[in-house]
Amino acid sequence: MLTYTAGRWRGLIQTRLLFVCVCGVSLSLEEMSEQQSYSYENDCKSDENRNKGASRWSQCRKRGADGSLRKAEEDQRCSRRPESFTTPESDGPVSRVKNWGDAVEAEEMRSDVRRDMHRYRRRILAVDVPQRDRKLSSGSSDSRDSQNSKDSTAKGDIETDEAVLVRRQKQINYGKNTLAYDRYIKEVPKLMREQGVHPKTPNKFKKYSRRSWDQQIKLWRVKLHAWDPPAGDLQQIEEIDLGEIMDFELDVECSADPESQCPSANAAALSLAEDSFRGTPKKMMKMEDAEMS
Amino acid sequence: MENSSKEDYKIQSFDLETQKLLKTALKDPGSVDLEKVSSVIVDQSLKDQIFSREAGRICHTIVQAEAKQSNGNVFRRNLLNRLQLEFKAREETRKRSTQEWVCLVSFICNIFDYLKVNNMPMVALVPPVYDCLFRLAQSDSLKNEEEVDCLVLQLHRIGDQLEKMNTPLMDELFNLLRDGFLLQEDLSSMGRLLLLEILEFRAGGWTLSDTAQKYYYSEVTD
Question: Which residues belong to any copy of the MIF4G domain (chain B) (predicted)?
Answer without folding.
Answer: 9-202
